[in-house]
Amino acid sequence: MKERIEKPFVYKTQPALYKSLGGLGEAAAANLEHSLVHLVKLRASQINGCAFCQHMHSNEARHDGEKQSRLDVLPAWREVPVFSARERAALDWTEAATQLSQTSPTDQQFAQLSSVFTQEEIVNLTITIATINAWNRIAVSFNFFPDFKDV
């Protein structure tokens, strides 16, 4: 498997990409718990099939203290009691906002989200989800893959 367009060429061709999209994601995520942001980015990347981002965000999560056992069961977050109500609401919102071609977030999901997040946090969470989805689409489209030095 080979990258369709190499990462350095993408950033050289569109230097504002990393600064703009990266800056937007960082600004939104700065107002949320780092552990929650890692889970959201990883879950969206799993749904989108982005190996590059899954590898990166799982490594970042572990580096910041996330337990491997929670990362192992993230795709089954509904079935296990290891995620808080806040994390569960964010993961549900992440799935709904990531799978827009199949469905859209419901009023019930928004009500659940609103019960554990402020409006400001909901805006920042939604922007975090939107930016990771954009990164996933770029990475998957150009066939970016992780650096497997640690495998």
Relevant terms:
151 residues; AhpD-like; 8 helices
The percent of residues in helical segments reads 55-70%
**Overall geometric form:** globular
Q: Which consecutive residue ranges, at least 5 long each, have pLDDT under 50? A: none
Counted by DSSP, the helix tally is 8
CATH homologous superfamily assignment:
AhpD-like
Q: Can you tell me about this structure?
A:
This protein has 151 residues and is an all-alpha fold. The chain has a single domain (10-145), classed as AhpD-like (Up-down Bundle). The protein is 66% helix and 0% strand. The protein has 8 helices and no strands. The chain has helices spanning 7-13, 16-29, 34-48, 51-63, 68-72, 85-98, 107-114, 119-141. α2 (16-29) runs antiparallel to α8, α3 runs antiparallel to α4 and α3 runs parallel beside α6. The chain is globular and about 45 Å long. The two termini are 17 Å apart. The model has no long low-confidence stretch (mean pLDDT 94).
